[in-house]
Amino acid sequence: MKQHIYLASPHMSEEGYEKFFIKEAFDTNWIAPLGENVTEFEREMEEKLGAGAAVALSAGTAAIHMALKAIGVGEGDLVFCQSLTFSASANPITYVNAKPVFIDSDEETWNMSPSALQKAFEKYEKLGKLPKAVIVVHLYGICAKIEPIAQICKKYRVPLIEDAAESLGTTYKGKYTGTFGDYGIISFNGNKIITSSGGGMLLINTEDAKERAREVLFLATQAREAQRWYQHAQIGYNYRMSNVVAGIGRGQLKVLDQRVEQKRAIYEYYRKHIGDLKGLSMMPQSREAYSNCWLSAIQLDDGCRVGPFDIMDALLADDVESRPIWKPLHLQPVFADCDFVTEKEGLHMVDERIGADNSAAGTIFLRGVCMPSDTKMTERDLERVCGVVRKLWKM
Ligand SMILES: *Cc1c(COP(=O)(O)O)cnc(C)c1O
Prior knowledge:
This protein has two domains: about 240 residues, Type I PLP-dependent aspartate aminotransferase-like (Major domain) (Aspartate Aminotransferase, domain 2), CATH 3.40.640; about 140 residues, Aspartate Aminotransferase, domain 1 (Alpha-Beta Complex). It has twelve helices and 17 strands. The longest helix is centred in the C-terminal third of the chain and has 18 residues. The protein starts with 16 loop residues before the first helix and ends with a helix.
């Protein structure tokens, strides 16, 4: 019988590091709250990534929420956010009663287009309403054009939040993603490159990072004032990571570099074994970046006989998981009343059924597929996946 192949599943270390740290938590009865694993996990992440401060939270989504709170985004404010991403990048904007303005992608990186961002700034400057923050994403581990994006934000004095949920381990000119923006966020959700079973981290890179971290910690632990009794002057949140969860995270951090190499080898395998198929191209890679290749995505040309759903259906029939590209947020019904800034002229629907337009983000969504990128796959598994794909070109 053929084995099921996952898109990306949790991959604990062969050495059992995660169990070691969990056992320590049990032995000292520091199951919750907090404890050594949480503080050590934060310290280890700060050190590994070179971040000013790190705060361990219950999810990556919570980390974005806390970044917006730390910046002071609130009622009626605008936040510029990359459109081509998972909804969790933008949902927290609505938690603080602000409104997203979605920005189109760049074909070279699939991520936020610096010129579309510039265009959005010019448009909203004229309207007399600059955004309170910008959220850029490093989709699938591909590094965004972070230097020009950071420069534009600096010019307009608007804080930058880097959603590095999918790009932990990706570096640009040797510096880790998540440390370029004023704030960076990481996710340890089950399908991410390393997982704590669920969790996230906020990275703070401002000059007053440690002080900001204390403020976030206060908000994320119910905003209890320093009194002997329970005193509250603001609304708090229950977003702190537990000590058991942090133990898994610490163990996983030890194998992050190894996972990056495994993910890159998967990408390389696909490039070699299906990258030559007519009309198929691999997701882009920037020359100055070293990608963690969290998911290996491919794109099919407009004229290609084989479409994304043909590939997903053929893989499914062989018990192999694959996934469409994130549907851009400006095309989501829930964000239908939000503005979208693109450089594309004559924006129109291209595929009514799935709701894709001819924007750069819409085109990537329409033409792309995320291939199975599970680090537990063997070479034979990869051979099997590529065989299914190649067969579609022979029919
Ligand atoms: C996974 C993910 C998140 C959310 O992280 P959680 O830990 O699941 O809350 C945010 N943004 C992107 C781009 C993601 O892929």
